[in-house]
Amino acid sequence: MNENYLSKNYHYISLKWEKISHNIAIHAKNIDSNFCMNIPSSSPIIDNMQIVSSYNPKEEASLQASKINTKSEIAYVFGIGSGLIQRELLKNKNLKKLCIIIMNYDVAAILFACFDHRFWLKDNRTELLFVKDIKNLPQNYTFYPPCVKLTDGNGYEIRDLIEMQLDESYNNKIISKKIKKSLKKNIYLKEIKNDKNLTALLKRSSFNKAFVIGGGPSIVNYLDFIKKNQKKCAIICVDRMFKTLLEKKIIPNFVVCSDPGEHTERFENINIPIKSYPKLLYLPSTNFKMLKLWKGKKYYYYPDDKKNMKVYKKIFNQYPGEKLFLQGSTIHPCVDLAAKLQSNEIFLFGADFCLINQRTHGSSEMNKEEINTSIYNKEILNGNGEVVKTKPSLISFLRQLEFYISKRKDIVFINSSKSGALIKGAKYL
After folding, report:
1. 155 in any annotated domain
2. pLDDT in the model for residue 3
3. Is 283 exposed, middle or buried (0-12, 13-18, 19+ CB in 10 A)?
4. Which of 50, 172, 235, 370 could form a disulfide with 252 if both were Cys (CB 3.0 to 4.6 A apart)?
Protein backbone atom coordinates (compact mmCIF):
# COMPACT_ATOMS: atom_id res chain seq x y z
CA MET A 1 0.00 0.00 0.00
CA ASN A 2 1.23 3.47 -0.88
CA GLU A 3 2.18 6.21 1.56
CA ASN A 4 -0.63 8.13 3.22
CA TYR A 5 -0.09 11.82 2.44
CA LEU A 6 -3.02 13.19 4.43
CA SER A 7 -1.04 14.61 7.37
CA LYS A 8 1.59 16.18 5.10
CA ASN A 9 -1.04 17.84 2.89
CA TYR A 10 -3.13 18.81 5.90
CA HIS A 11 -0.22 20.76 7.37
CA TYR A 12 -0.27 23.24 4.47
CA ILE A 13 -4.06 23.33 4.27
CA SER A 14 -4.31 24.29 7.95
CA LEU A 15 -1.76 27.09 7.49
CA LYS A 16 -3.78 28.82 4.76
CA TRP A 17 -7.41 27.71 5.00
CA GLU A 18 -8.62 27.16 8.57
CA LYS A 19 -12.29 26.42 7.82
CA ILE A 20 -11.48 24.02 5.00
CA SER A 21 -8.85 22.22 7.08
CA HIS A 22 -11.43 21.73 9.83
CA ASN A 23 -13.89 20.16 7.38
CA ILE A 24 -11.20 17.96 5.82
CA ALA A 25 -10.27 16.67 9.28
CA ILE A 26 -13.89 15.77 10.06
CA HIS A 27 -14.47 13.98 6.77
CA ALA A 28 -11.13 12.15 6.90
CA LYS A 29 -12.25 10.48 10.15
CA ASN A 30 -15.52 9.28 8.67
CA ILE A 31 -14.50 7.80 5.31
CA ASP A 32 -16.85 4.92 4.47
CA SER A 33 -14.88 1.85 3.40
CA ASN A 34 -17.78 0.90 1.13
CA PHE A 35 -17.38 4.23 -0.66
CA CYS A 36 -13.78 3.74 -1.80
CA MET A 37 -11.14 1.14 -2.70
CA ASN A 38 -7.33 1.11 -3.04
CA ILE A 39 -6.88 3.71 -0.29
CA PRO A 40 -4.28 5.05 -0.07
CA SER A 41 -2.82 4.41 -3.53
CA SER A 42 -2.11 6.23 -6.79
CA SER A 43 -5.18 4.63 -8.36
CA PRO A 44 -8.07 5.14 -5.92
CA ILE A 45 -11.57 4.00 -6.81
CA ILE A 46 -14.32 6.12 -5.27
CA ASP A 47 -17.97 5.13 -5.52
CA ASN A 48 -17.01 2.63 -8.26
CA MET A 49 -15.32 5.41 -10.24
CA GLN A 50 -11.62 5.37 -11.15
CA ILE A 51 -10.21 8.81 -10.34
CA VAL A 52 -6.96 8.69 -12.33
CA SER A 53 -6.60 7.41 -15.87
CA SER A 54 -4.65 4.17 -16.17
CA TYR A 55 -3.72 5.03 -19.74
CA ASN A 56 -1.65 8.23 -19.74
CA PRO A 57 -2.62 10.46 -16.80
CA LYS A 58 0.03 13.12 -17.48
CA GLU A 59 -1.03 13.55 -21.09
CA GLU A 60 -4.70 13.72 -20.11
CA ALA A 61 -3.92 16.30 -17.42
CA SER A 62 -2.06 18.34 -20.01
CA LEU A 63 -5.08 18.18 -22.29
CA GLN A 64 -7.40 19.38 -19.51
CA ALA A 65 -4.98 22.18 -18.60
CA SER A 66 -4.91 23.30 -22.25
CA LYS A 67 -8.51 24.51 -21.84
CA ILE A 68 -7.08 27.51 -19.98
CA ASN A 69 -5.76 30.36 -22.09
CA THR A 70 -2.02 30.73 -21.36
CA LYS A 71 -2.48 34.51 -21.17
CA SER A 72 -5.05 34.23 -18.39
CA GLU A 73 -4.06 35.62 -15.02
CA ILE A 74 -6.67 33.59 -13.11
CA ALA A 75 -7.88 30.02 -13.60
CA TYR A 76 -10.19 27.58 -11.85
CA VAL A 77 -9.91 23.81 -11.41
CA PHE A 78 -13.01 21.95 -10.29
CA GLY A 79 -11.97 18.99 -8.20
CA ILE A 80 -8.78 18.07 -6.32
CA GLY A 81 -7.87 15.09 -8.49
CA SER A 82 -4.33 13.81 -8.54
CA GLY A 83 -2.79 17.29 -8.70
CA LEU A 84 -1.48 16.80 -12.24
CA ILE A 85 -3.69 19.53 -13.73
CA GLN A 86 -2.57 21.96 -11.03
CA ARG A 87 1.05 21.11 -11.79
CA GLU A 88 0.56 21.84 -15.49
CA LEU A 89 -1.20 25.15 -14.88
CA LEU A 90 1.34 26.44 -12.38
CA LYS A 91 4.05 26.15 -15.04
CA ASN A 92 2.45 29.20 -16.65
CA LYS A 93 4.27 32.34 -15.48
CA ASN A 94 1.36 34.55 -16.56
CA LEU A 95 -0.90 32.89 -14.02
CA LYS A 96 -1.34 35.00 -10.89
CA LYS A 97 -4.11 33.05 -9.17
CA LEU A 98 -5.22 29.42 -9.35
CA CYS A 99 -8.46 28.50 -7.58
CA ILE A 100 -8.97 24.81 -6.82
CA ILE A 101 -12.54 23.92 -5.90
CA ILE A 102 -13.46 21.05 -3.60
CA MET A 103 -16.59 19.37 -4.99
CA ASN A 104 -17.08 16.89 -2.17
CA TYR A 105 -15.27 16.85 1.19
CA ASP A 106 -15.31 13.05 1.43
CA VAL A 107 -13.67 12.76 -1.98
CA ALA A 108 -11.19 15.54 -1.17
CA ALA A 109 -10.10 13.81 2.07
CA ILE A 110 -9.46 10.60 0.15
CA LEU A 111 -7.46 12.36 -2.56
CA PHE A 112 -5.38 14.28 -0.02
CA ALA A 113 -4.52 10.87 1.49
CA CYS A 114 -3.62 9.30 -1.86
CA PHE A 115 -1.56 12.02 -3.55
CA ASP A 116 1.15 14.47 -2.58
CA HIS A 117 -0.45 17.87 -3.22
CA ARG A 118 2.08 19.93 -1.27
CA PHE A 119 3.64 21.49 -4.36
CA TRP A 120 0.47 23.46 -5.17
CA LEU A 121 -0.84 23.84 -1.63
CA LYS A 122 2.20 25.86 -0.64
CA ASP A 123 2.27 27.91 -3.86
CA ASN A 124 1.33 31.53 -3.09
CA ARG A 125 -0.80 31.69 -6.21
CA THR A 126 -3.24 28.99 -5.14
CA GLU A 127 -6.58 29.39 -3.41
CA LEU A 128 -8.59 26.44 -2.06
CA LEU A 129 -12.37 26.88 -2.15
CA PHE A 130 -15.52 24.85 -1.55
CA VAL A 131 -18.01 24.59 -4.41
CA LYS A 132 -20.79 26.12 -2.27
CA ASP A 133 -18.92 29.44 -2.48
CA ILE A 134 -18.93 29.43 -6.31
CA LYS A 135 -22.10 31.15 -7.49
CA ASN A 136 -21.52 31.05 -11.25
CA LEU A 137 -19.43 29.07 -13.70
CA PRO A 138 -16.28 31.13 -14.38
CA GLN A 139 -14.86 31.64 -17.86
CA ASN A 140 -11.37 30.19 -17.43
CA TYR A 141 -11.95 26.80 -15.90
CA THR A 142 -11.03 23.17 -16.30
CA PHE A 143 -11.94 20.13 -14.24
CA TYR A 144 -11.36 16.55 -13.17
CA PRO A 145 -14.40 14.73 -14.65
CA PRO A 146 -14.69 12.11 -11.87
CA CYS A 147 -14.58 14.80 -9.17
CA VAL A 148 -17.35 16.74 -10.88
CA LYS A 149 -19.50 13.62 -11.15
CA LEU A 150 -18.90 12.83 -7.48
CA THR A 151 -19.96 16.27 -6.24
CA ASP A 152 -22.28 16.50 -3.27
CA GLY A 153 -25.55 18.47 -3.32
CA ASN A 154 -23.72 21.79 -2.96
CA GLY A 155 -22.19 21.35 -6.39
CA TYR A 156 -25.12 20.04 -8.42
CA GLU A 157 -25.68 23.36 -10.20
CA ILE A 158 -22.00 23.78 -11.14
CA ARG A 159 -21.86 20.13 -12.25
CA ASP A 160 -24.90 20.65 -14.46
CA LEU A 161 -23.54 23.83 -16.05
CA ILE A 162 -20.25 22.10 -16.90
CA GLU A 163 -22.03 19.12 -18.43
CA MET A 164 -24.41 21.39 -20.36
CA GLN A 165 -21.47 23.21 -21.93
CA LEU A 166 -19.93 19.90 -22.94
CA ASP A 167 -23.20 18.70 -24.51
CA GLU A 168 -24.24 21.99 -26.12
CA SER A 169 -22.72 21.51 -29.57
CA TYR A 170 -24.01 17.95 -29.94
CA ASN A 171 -27.50 18.82 -28.67
CA ASN A 172 -27.78 21.79 -31.05
CA LYS A 173 -27.00 19.54 -34.00
CA ILE A 174 -29.62 17.00 -32.94
CA ILE A 175 -32.29 19.67 -32.40
CA SER A 176 -31.50 21.39 -35.69
CA LYS A 177 -31.72 18.10 -37.57
CA LYS A 178 -35.05 17.28 -35.90
CA ILE A 179 -36.54 20.69 -36.76
CA LYS A 180 -35.35 20.54 -40.38
CA LYS A 181 -36.95 17.13 -40.80
CA SER A 182 -40.21 18.37 -39.34
CA LEU A 183 -40.28 21.51 -41.50
CA LYS A 184 -39.64 19.46 -44.61
CA LYS A 185 -42.67 17.26 -43.90
CA ASN A 186 -44.91 20.02 -42.58
CA ILE A 187 -47.59 20.70 -45.19
CA TYR A 188 -49.28 23.10 -42.75
CA LEU A 189 -46.69 25.72 -43.72
CA LYS A 190 -48.91 26.42 -46.72
CA GLU A 191 -51.64 27.57 -44.35
CA ILE A 192 -49.56 29.62 -41.90
CA LYS A 193 -50.66 32.71 -43.80
CA ASN A 194 -54.16 32.21 -42.36
CA ASP A 195 -52.87 32.50 -38.78
CA LYS A 196 -51.58 35.52 -36.94
CA ASN A 197 -48.19 36.05 -35.43
CA LEU A 198 -47.86 36.39 -31.69
CA THR A 199 -47.03 40.10 -31.89
CA ALA A 200 -50.65 40.91 -32.74
CA LEU A 201 -51.87 39.02 -29.66
CA LEU A 202 -49.43 40.70 -27.28
CA LYS A 203 -50.60 44.15 -28.35
CA ARG A 204 -54.13 43.35 -27.17
CA SER A 205 -53.56 41.27 -24.06
CA SER A 206 -52.04 41.80 -20.63
CA PHE A 207 -52.39 40.12 -17.22
CA ASN A 208 -50.97 41.04 -13.82
CA LYS A 209 -50.66 37.39 -12.79
CA ALA A 210 -50.16 34.16 -14.70
CA PHE A 211 -50.39 30.46 -13.86
CA VAL A 212 -47.92 28.48 -15.96
CA ILE A 213 -48.90 24.81 -16.11
CA GLY A 214 -46.12 22.31 -16.80
CA GLY A 215 -46.42 18.55 -17.15
CA GLY A 216 -44.66 17.43 -13.97
CA PRO A 217 -46.22 14.93 -11.53
CA SER A 218 -46.91 17.49 -8.78
CA ILE A 219 -49.53 19.26 -10.91
CA VAL A 220 -52.24 16.78 -9.81
CA ASN A 221 -52.04 18.19 -6.29
CA TYR A 222 -52.88 21.73 -7.43
CA LEU A 223 -55.67 21.29 -9.97
CA ASP A 224 -58.36 22.27 -7.46
CA PHE A 225 -56.37 25.35 -6.46
CA ILE A 226 -55.96 26.34 -10.12
CA LYS A 227 -59.69 25.81 -10.75
CA LYS A 228 -60.62 27.95 -7.76
CA ASN A 229 -58.38 30.81 -8.91
CA GLN A 230 -58.65 30.48 -12.69
CA LYS A 231 -60.57 33.73 -13.18
CA LYS A 232 -57.96 35.80 -11.30
CA CYS A 233 -55.11 35.37 -13.77
CA ALA A 234 -53.97 34.10 -17.16
CA ILE A 235 -53.58 30.33 -17.43
CA ILE A 236 -50.88 29.20 -19.82
CA CYS A 237 -50.30 25.48 -20.24
CA VAL A 238 -48.04 23.16 -22.19
CA ASP A 239 -49.99 21.22 -24.81
CA ARG A 240 -49.49 17.94 -22.93
CA MET A 241 -51.62 19.26 -20.04
CA PHE A 242 -54.57 20.66 -22.02
CA LYS A 243 -56.84 17.62 -21.64
CA THR A 244 -55.93 17.18 -17.96
CA LEU A 245 -57.09 20.73 -17.29
CA LEU A 246 -60.31 20.22 -19.27
CA GLU A 247 -61.12 17.13 -17.20
CA LYS A 248 -61.18 19.45 -14.18
CA LYS A 249 -63.26 22.00 -16.10
CA ILE A 250 -60.32 24.39 -16.31
CA ILE A 251 -60.06 26.14 -19.67
CA PRO A 252 -56.68 27.83 -20.08
CA ASN A 253 -56.26 31.13 -21.89
CA PHE A 254 -53.28 29.88 -23.88
CA VAL A 255 -51.89 26.50 -24.95
CA VAL A 256 -48.28 26.33 -26.15
CA CYS A 257 -46.63 23.79 -28.48
CA SER A 258 -42.91 23.40 -29.11
CA ASP A 259 -42.31 19.68 -29.71
CA PRO A 260 -42.30 18.77 -33.44
CA GLY A 261 -43.46 15.24 -32.62
CA GLU A 262 -46.84 13.87 -33.69
CA HIS A 263 -48.93 14.00 -30.51
CA THR A 264 -52.41 14.17 -32.02
CA GLU A 265 -53.93 12.52 -28.93
CA ARG A 266 -53.42 15.82 -27.10
CA PHE A 267 -55.98 17.60 -29.32
CA GLU A 268 -58.37 14.78 -30.23
CA ASN A 269 -61.92 14.50 -28.81
CA ILE A 270 -62.03 17.97 -27.28
CA ASN A 271 -65.62 18.49 -26.13
CA ILE A 272 -65.88 22.23 -25.67
CA PRO A 273 -67.52 24.86 -27.89
CA ILE A 274 -65.27 26.34 -30.57
CA LYS A 275 -65.67 29.80 -29.02
CA SER A 276 -64.25 28.41 -25.73
CA TYR A 277 -61.04 27.15 -27.31
CA PRO A 278 -57.90 28.76 -25.89
CA LYS A 279 -55.47 30.55 -28.14
CA LEU A 280 -52.85 28.13 -29.45
CA LEU A 281 -49.23 29.22 -29.82
CA TYR A 282 -47.13 27.05 -32.09
CA LEU A 283 -43.78 26.89 -33.82
CA PRO A 284 -43.77 26.49 -37.61
CA SER A 285 -42.24 23.04 -36.99
CA THR A 286 -45.25 21.86 -34.95
CA ASN A 287 -46.82 18.72 -36.39
CA PHE A 288 -49.41 19.68 -39.02
CA LYS A 289 -51.89 16.96 -37.93
CA MET A 290 -52.04 18.51 -34.46
CA LEU A 291 -52.60 21.97 -35.89
CA LYS A 292 -55.38 20.69 -38.15
CA LEU A 293 -57.20 19.33 -35.11
CA TRP A 294 -57.20 22.71 -33.37
CA LYS A 295 -60.54 24.51 -33.81
CA GLY A 296 -59.63 27.77 -32.10
CA LYS A 297 -57.38 30.67 -33.03
CA LYS A 298 -53.74 29.95 -33.72
CA TYR A 299 -50.68 32.19 -33.40
CA TYR A 300 -47.18 31.30 -34.55
CA TYR A 301 -43.95 32.23 -32.81
CA TYR A 302 -40.23 31.53 -33.15
CA PRO A 303 -37.46 30.55 -30.72
CA ASP A 304 -35.26 33.38 -29.49
CA ASP A 305 -32.15 31.20 -29.75
CA LYS A 306 -29.92 32.38 -32.62
CA LYS A 307 -28.64 28.88 -33.44
CA ASN A 308 -32.12 27.40 -33.73
CA MET A 309 -33.41 30.44 -35.62
CA LYS A 310 -31.08 29.61 -38.50
CA VAL A 311 -33.40 26.71 -39.36
CA TYR A 312 -36.42 29.02 -39.42
CA LYS A 313 -34.74 31.87 -41.32
CA LYS A 314 -36.51 31.32 -44.63
CA ILE A 315 -39.96 31.05 -43.03
CA PHE A 316 -39.29 33.96 -40.70
CA ASN A 317 -38.41 36.21 -43.64
CA GLN A 318 -41.75 35.38 -45.23
CA TYR A 319 -43.80 35.36 -42.03
CA PRO A 320 -41.99 37.43 -39.38
CA GLY A 321 -43.19 37.18 -35.80
CA GLU A 322 -42.52 37.34 -32.08
CA LYS A 323 -39.78 35.22 -30.52
CA LEU A 324 -40.12 33.38 -27.21
CA PHE A 325 -37.48 31.94 -24.92
CA LEU A 326 -37.00 28.28 -25.76
CA GLN A 327 -34.21 25.97 -24.66
CA GLY A 328 -35.70 22.53 -25.05
CA SER A 329 -38.78 22.57 -22.80
CA THR A 330 -42.26 23.85 -23.65
CA ILE A 331 -42.46 25.43 -20.21
CA HIS A 332 -39.83 27.96 -21.36
CA PRO A 333 -42.03 29.73 -23.96
CA CYS A 334 -44.95 29.47 -21.52
CA VAL A 335 -43.00 31.46 -18.93
CA ASP A 336 -41.77 33.97 -21.49
CA LEU A 337 -45.30 34.44 -22.79
CA ALA A 338 -46.43 35.22 -19.25
CA ALA A 339 -43.66 37.80 -18.98
CA LYS A 340 -44.55 39.35 -22.35
CA LEU A 341 -48.16 39.56 -21.21
CA GLN A 342 -46.79 41.95 -18.55
CA SER A 343 -47.39 39.61 -15.61
CA ASN A 344 -45.53 40.74 -12.52
CA GLU A 345 -46.22 37.44 -10.73
CA ILE A 346 -45.73 34.07 -12.44
CA PHE A 347 -46.86 30.93 -10.60
CA LEU A 348 -45.24 27.65 -11.69
CA PHE A 349 -47.24 24.42 -11.47
CA GLY A 350 -45.88 21.03 -12.52
CA ALA A 351 -42.40 22.51 -13.09
CA ASP A 352 -40.76 19.53 -11.40
CA PHE A 353 -37.87 18.44 -13.64
CA CYS A 354 -37.55 15.15 -11.72
CA LEU A 355 -39.26 11.90 -10.76
CA ILE A 356 -41.87 12.11 -8.01
CA ASN A 357 -43.11 8.78 -6.66
CA GLN A 358 -41.70 7.09 -9.76
CA ARG A 359 -43.87 9.23 -12.03
CA THR A 360 -42.48 11.39 -14.81
CA HIS A 361 -45.60 13.38 -15.72
CA GLY A 362 -48.86 14.53 -14.25
CA SER A 363 -51.02 14.01 -17.34
CA SER A 364 -53.02 10.87 -18.02
CA GLU A 365 -51.28 10.60 -21.39
CA MET A 366 -49.32 7.35 -21.54
CA ASN A 367 -45.73 7.53 -22.70
CA LYS A 368 -42.65 5.35 -22.65
CA GLU A 369 -40.89 7.47 -20.03
CA GLU A 370 -43.55 6.64 -17.44
CA ILE A 371 -42.46 3.02 -17.70
CA ASN A 372 -38.72 3.40 -18.27
CA THR A 373 -37.68 5.25 -15.13
CA SER A 374 -34.17 3.71 -15.32
CA ILE A 375 -32.99 6.58 -17.52
CA TYR A 376 -33.44 8.90 -14.53
CA ASN A 377 -29.93 8.28 -13.27
CA LYS A 378 -28.93 11.81 -12.25
CA GLU A 379 -29.49 13.49 -8.89
CA ILE A 380 -30.59 16.99 -7.90
CA LEU A 381 -32.13 18.57 -4.81
CA ASN A 382 -35.85 19.20 -4.42
CA GLY A 383 -37.46 22.04 -2.47
CA ASN A 384 -37.24 20.04 0.75
CA GLY A 385 -33.47 19.60 0.38
CA GLU A 386 -33.91 15.93 -0.53
CA VAL A 387 -31.96 14.18 -3.29
CA VAL A 388 -34.29 13.18 -6.14
CA LYS A 389 -33.75 11.35 -9.42
CA THR A 390 -33.78 13.10 -12.78
CA LYS A 391 -32.17 12.89 -16.22
CA PRO A 392 -29.75 15.14 -18.14
CA SER A 393 -32.34 16.77 -20.41
CA LEU A 394 -34.52 17.80 -17.46
CA ILE A 395 -31.49 19.21 -15.66
CA SER A 396 -30.72 21.31 -18.73
CA PHE A 397 -34.33 22.56 -18.90
CA LEU A 398 -34.17 23.48 -15.20
CA ARG A 399 -30.88 25.38 -15.43
CA GLN A 400 -32.05 27.29 -18.50
CA LEU A 401 -35.22 28.31 -16.67
CA GLU A 402 -33.12 29.46 -13.71
CA PHE A 403 -30.99 31.51 -16.11
CA TYR A 404 -34.14 33.16 -17.48
CA ILE A 405 -35.44 33.89 -13.97
CA SER A 406 -32.11 35.46 -13.00
CA LYS A 407 -32.52 37.99 -15.82
CA ARG A 408 -36.07 39.01 -14.86
CA LYS A 409 -35.70 40.84 -11.57
CA ASP A 410 -38.93 42.71 -12.36
CA ILE A 411 -41.03 39.55 -11.95
CA VAL A 412 -41.80 37.46 -8.87
CA PHE A 413 -41.63 33.74 -9.67
CA ILE A 414 -43.53 31.42 -7.35
CA ASN A 415 -43.04 27.65 -7.40
CA SER A 416 -45.99 25.60 -6.18
CA SER A 417 -44.37 22.35 -5.10
CA LYS A 418 -41.37 21.49 -2.93
CA SER A 419 -41.52 17.90 -4.19
CA GLY A 420 -40.09 18.98 -7.52
CA ALA A 421 -36.61 20.30 -8.24
CA LEU A 422 -35.44 23.36 -6.36
CA ILE A 423 -35.73 26.27 -8.80
CA LYS A 424 -33.18 28.94 -8.00
CA GLY A 425 -34.73 32.40 -7.94
CA ALA A 426 -38.30 31.21 -7.32
CA LYS A 427 -40.20 31.57 -4.05
CA TYR A 428 -42.70 29.00 -2.79
CA LEU A 429 -46.47 29.19 -2.78
Report:
1. no
2. 72
3. buried
4. 235
